[in-house]
Amino acid sequence: xxxxxxxxxxxxxxxxxxxxxxxxxxxxxxxxxxxxxxxxxxxxxxxxxxxxxxxxxxxxxxxxxxxxxxxxxxxxxxxxxxxxxxxxxxxxxxxxxxxxxxxxxxxxxxxxxxxxxxxxxxxxxxxxxxxxxxxxxxxxxxxxxxxxxxxxxxxxxxxxxxxxxxxxxxxxxxxxxxxxxxxxxxxxxxxxxxxxxxxxxxxxxxxxxxxxxxxxxxxxxxxxxxxxxxxxxxxxxxxxxxxxxxxxxxxxxxxxxxxxxxxxxxxxxxxxxxxxxxxxxxxxxxxxxxxxxxxxxxxxxxxxxxxxxxxxxxxxxxxxxxxxxxxxxxxxxxxxxxxxxxxxxxxxxxxxxxxxxxxxxxxxxxxxxxxxxx
Length: 374
Known about the structure:
Layout: E1 7-11, E2 18-19, E3 25-26, E4 29-36, E5 46-50, E6 62-63, E7 71-72, E8 79-80, E9 85-86, E10 91-95, E11 110-111, E12 116-117, H1 127-140, E13 148-152, H2 154-165, E14 172-176, H3 184-198, H4 215-229, H5 232-238, H6 258-271, H7 276-288, H8 292-297, E15 310-316, H9 324-336, E16 340-346, H10 360-371
Parallel strand pairs: 5-10, 5-13, 8-9, 13-14, 14-15, 15-16
Antiparallel strand pairs: 1-4, 2-3, 4-10, 6-7, 11-12
Helix pairs in contact: 1-2, 3-4, 3-7, 4-6
């Protein structure tokens, strides 16, 4: 994709603030986003790409930030000329979610009323609120029809929310490695991550900006999360019980095993790019997410005025965070309402993060599906 540029759109300026699902008000709101490809004169070739929990708007191409090395997009393998999401055909928009720390308004943003970061005064946001801000961005760009909405994990939740909230705008939906609502297991892991952050003495009830950050708590939260993104087979193959740069045990609490060193590395890398409070807010938003009833009540059978959305549901055999049985529940729910549903379970031993790993199967699957949408 070459060099790309992050863009920003601000709205909901006081007194016309954004009313959130909780009833709280927020404004102004800024959404960071990137675009790839060319929008047609009719504005009918747009694909909305929604990112996962700790992702951002930088899905493809590269750019430099603050003198750093070129940063490649998180789905570079999927987006570009002739790729699964073909920029010769489609105009792709990838916005950063509300509550994040990657350019969009979140708890680390400055509250104009106090001239200090919001911290925990930032209102609780939901997946629905995130989708509302994306809809506002599309309105600003004059786009009223989406060729498709595509996203994995928490991005897949946004895809499903789009289908129940603005179905008239969506021709096709591709939720990947996601669920209609969190299981008790997923909520449990998120709560462990949140508690690890809040137990860090530097967290200071969220008011750590300009001070020592809760890096240890955030690193542990990332380590916990990262385990859920992998699989037993992936960890066995990549690490096993191999030692890290040594031949015998240290008989202490150093990182003896490669897997220990790897998790520490992932935790330390995460604290340099993400905000601890954003982890709290985004994990809570994903825990609150529940569209089971809405998906059961929407569809051509129950609403003769609604155009039929074409769905492609993708899951992975080794994903134990959002296992295939949850994808099957979504498929059954959509079938009961008369929706046009295709599905595929991809065999992979990489775990939940498999959709982020370059894979020709996923690329051809998505590309073929998009080409079949009128």
